[in-house]
Amino acid sequence: MNKGTDTLRWTRNDALVALGAAAADLLGFSLATQSEGMPLPVPAACALVAAALCLLARRSHPVTVLATVLLLGVVPNLAIPDASPRFPLGLAAALYAVVRFGRPAVAAASVVLTVPLASLGQGGTLVPAGWSVVANATAATLVAAAAVVVNRWQREVAANHALQAERAVAEERRRIARELHDIVAHHITAMQLMAGGARANLAHDTEAAREALVALEDSGRIALREMRQLLDVLRAGEEADEAPPAPQPGTADLERIVTESRLAGTETDFTVEGTVRPLPPSVGLTLFRIVQEALTNTRKHAGQARAQVRLTYRRDEVRVEVCDDGAGPPPPPAARPAPGTGYGLIGMHERVVLQGGTLEAAARDGGGFRVAARLPAPADRGGE
Q: With helix as H, strand as E and coil as C, how does 135-188 read?
């Protein structure tokens, strides 16, 4: 299709507007002439139909369409001098298109010129009558005001859509940053400690060194898998891999996290209270990341501490608590994160808030640190 043909394309809505304007104007003029005891003249009917057909191009050539409609409008005005409507619907649609799609200066000039030009021929003379000008000015003003209101509304809608898109992008970036922090902080710390334990036991306890190396290999494999899933999010729109992505971790993987913590040198207890039930994937992932981050912080900041993980199922919620006793040599003043500081705690807080829950993270009076989260999870919700 060449360029000239492409600019004349019209849509189904354009066709409906043209048909509706033709039908409405023919009906209005017919009723007006019948009230005077005369039929609708054929030239007037043809001019009304031709003006309505011009509306098919009102989006691509609004000014040309308005000028054509004004010119054709003189025919019914002269043919029916005593009963012609003052402002046909086809003319209103053409003027509306100019104000909607044209530049402000062109729109203003079109409104001003439409008022006298639409009155040409009314009353049986080419000179516009006083009341015709007033009526046309009122109609033209209302049409232009409607177009201006629609333009402003569409700009506001577009701005809101752009703002929502920016917020969605920012939220996705924060989510990816949280995931990246949790994966790197946990697995790299665990792998470092496991490698150190294997090196320390290599000379006198080869079995312990072997177990540490096996755990180190498993942790590296899991880290690579989770990193690949995270990068797949950034590759959205590209050709998908043939292998389906692995499911996101959840509460069923907490035992693995606890085992890694033990192998890394932190004595860790894990207890489950209440009736175990499936949880929504987002809730399970949030619980997993909270425990993962809390145990990582324990290994990094608490020295030779002992940790305890408690998962509690209740009727309408699920709770998780990770505590450590802070045993071992005292850390530097800035080593343990204070409540509300540190990217890990910020990430945990954002995760919990997104699920509609609450998070507590603070130093314990007797020493150590405590992280506790409560997430709404009614028993009738979908599971992992």
A: HHHHHHHHHHHHHHHHHHHHHHHHHHHHHHHHHHHHHHHHHHHHHHHHHHHHHH
Secondary structure of 220-269 as H, E, C letters: HHHHHHHHHHHHHHHCCCCCCCCCCCCCCCCHHHHHHHHHHHHHCCCEEE
Entry pTM: 0.46
pLDDT tens digit string along 127-142? 556 666 777 788 888 9
To the nearest whole number, what is the mean pLDDT of the chain?
77
Closest by CA to 354, choosing from 178, 185, 233, 223, is: 178
Asked if residue 115 lies in contact with residue 140, where contact means CB atoms within 8 angstroms, the answer is: yes
pLDDT computed for residue 319 by the predictor: 93
| CB contact burial 199-211 (16+ within 10 A = b; e otherwise) | eebeeeeeeebeb
Phi, psi for 75 (deg, rounded to 5): -65, -55
